[in-house]
Amino acid sequence: MAKDGLRERETSKNSFKAAGIVCAALAFGWMAVELAFKPFLDSGRKALDRANPDHDLDDDEDEDRQDRRAATPPSEGS
Questions:
Q1: Does residue 71 or residue 22 have the better pLDDT?
Q2: pLDDT digits (tens, 9 = 90+) for 7-20
Q3: Angle at CA 49, nearest 5°, toward 47 and 50?
Q4: Which residues does 55 contact at the CB level (< 8 Å), separation at least 6?
Q5: pLDDT computed for residue 55 by the predictor
Q6: CA 14, CA 11: separation in Å to the nearest integer?
Q7: What is the DSSP letter of 72?
Q8: How distant, in Å, are the alpha carbons of 10, 15, 16, 17 from that of 23?
C-alpha cells in the first residue's frame, strides 16, 4: 500500500513538471513568433488601429512627433 501512495505522489509531481515544461515551451514559442514576424505584426496592428472608427487620428501625430524627437540627437547648446 505504501508503494501505491508513493507512485501517486510521483505521478502528481511528474504531471506538474510536464505542465510547467509545456507552459514554458508555449511562452518561448510565442516570443519566437513575435520576434520573427515583428514587422508584419506591427504593420497589421497599425492597420487595425486605423480601421477602428473610434480611433483618434491625433494620437498618430503625437506618436510620430515622439518618434522624431527620440531619433534626433540633443543639440550641444542645451
A1: 22
A2: 777 888 899 999 99
A3: 65
A4: 49
A5: 66
A6: 5
A7: S
A8: 20, 12, 10, 10
Amino acid at 32: A
Residue tagged 508513493 (cell numbers): 6
Query: What does the pLDDT look like over 43-78, one tens digit per residue?
Result: 888 888 778 767 666 676 666 666 666 666 666 655
Cell 515622439 belongs to which residue? 66
Phi and psi for 67 in degrees, rounded to 5? Answer: -65, -40
For 41, residues 6+ apart whose C-beta sits below 8 A from its C-beta are 34
**What single string gives the DSSP state of each residue in 48-69?**
HHHH-TT--HHHHHHHHHHHHH
For 1, the 3-state DSSP assignment is: coil
